[in-house]
Write a structure and sequence with these properties.
Elements lengths: L1 H41 L3 H7 E11 L6 E6 H8 L6 E13 L2 E12 L2 E15 L2 E11 L4
Helix pairs in contact: 1-2
Length: about 150
């Protein structure tokens, strides 16, 4: 009677210890994709951004400034075309990002500040969802708030 119970706890213990080792590396990989995304955004590299995004990616902007909350879905193609071309750098910096993942789904939650060139534009929170397909993490969705900086 004790043997099956001991085997059960041994298997569960091994599964937990292995997944703990993988979680750190997987979290770093997820954050790496998000960092690459922000570097491509800063450089206005629409092609590079598109390679980091899933073909079904979507974006939602929530403007929380003022008296009326504005929620606006943005098609990824429209968003990419608005980024492309010449102009000042679009610099988004994450502060204390939190990564959660399970299987093929991951999310990065973070406070951010956003600069256009060297001028602070706004701050807010990002909720970035990623999916792992064919061994690669790709951005599936970005929902973000636009807020007055604290």
């Amino acid at each position: 009677m004790w043997a099956p119970l001991a085997v059960f706890f041994l298997v569960i213990g091994c599964a937990d210890s292995n997944s703990g080792q993988d979680k750190g590396a997987e979290s770093e990989e997820v954050l790496g994709v998000v960092h690459d995304f922000f570097q491509a955004l800063e450089a206005r590299q629409d092609f590079r951004l598109s390679t980091l995004m899933h073909s079904q990616a979507s974006l939602v902007r929530i403007d929380a400034r003022g008296d009326t909350l504005k929620v606006e879905p943005i098609g990824s193609e429209d968003w990419l075309s608005s980024i492309a071309g010449e102009g000042p750098a679009l610099i988004e910096r994450m502060h204390n990002p939190v990564v959660q993942h399970s299987g093929p789904l991951a999310e990065v939650w973070t406070y951010y500040d956003f600069h256009i060139g060297d001028k602070l534009s706004h701050c807010g929170h990002d909720a970035i969802q990623l999916v792992k397909e064919e061994g690669r993490w790709k951005i599936l969705g970005v929902t973000y708030t636009i807020e007055t900086c604290r």
